[in-house]
Design brief:
Elements lengths: L1 E7 L4 H4 L13 H13 L7 E4 L3 H11 L7 E2 L16 H7 L1 H9 L12 H18 L3 E7 L1 H12 L17 E7 L2 E9 L5
Parallel strand pairs: 1-4, 2-3, 2-4
Antiparallel strand pairs: 1-5, 5-6
Helix pairs in contact: 2-3, 4-5, 6-7
Length: 202
Amino acid sequence: MLHLYIIRHGETEWNTEKRMQGRLDSDLTEKGRNAALLLGERLKDTVFDRIISSPSQRTMDTAQLVRGKRPISFETDERLMEIALGDWQGKTEDEIKALFPSQYDLYWNHPTLYENPEGERFIDVMERVASFLEELVNTTPSGNVLVVTHGVVLKTLYLLCRNAPIDQLWDPPFMHGTSLTIVKLHEGRKELVLEGCMAHCR
């Protein structure tokens, strides 16, 4: 039986500015770094067989903080990267809404219909997440694996666990920075054990 401890990266400077990051990056805030340290303390007694991060700097920084002094290296996997957003990347939500009003509406209100000529659809993200999970179960069928990734990746993972349609992408819970989700993978089933938990920051 495999348990995935999946976290979203800590809060970044662009998060505070409501600026879309996608494949671009910005530094963790002090709040984001502190939350990652608190999560590391919360998980200090959990033994991880692997730590796998998106190759984005904000996720790798978060992974290092959560890992703490554990004598284990971490790997990166491009399938864990945030949704590619093309020309949206680096712009604030208000700027995107003004420049791409119909696309912006579809992104938030009709995600099945959302398309970005310079980026990815949500189904593209879901397919690479499914590929990651399938390979992970084959290579690491049991134990605990820490995965550090991004908000949209987590949201598509929830859909896969629930066998739900993309139109339910934005259903609760909200993915706060360093939120912890635990998924149990066993005999082809994906069970959400913990969803978007922020108990370490209370």
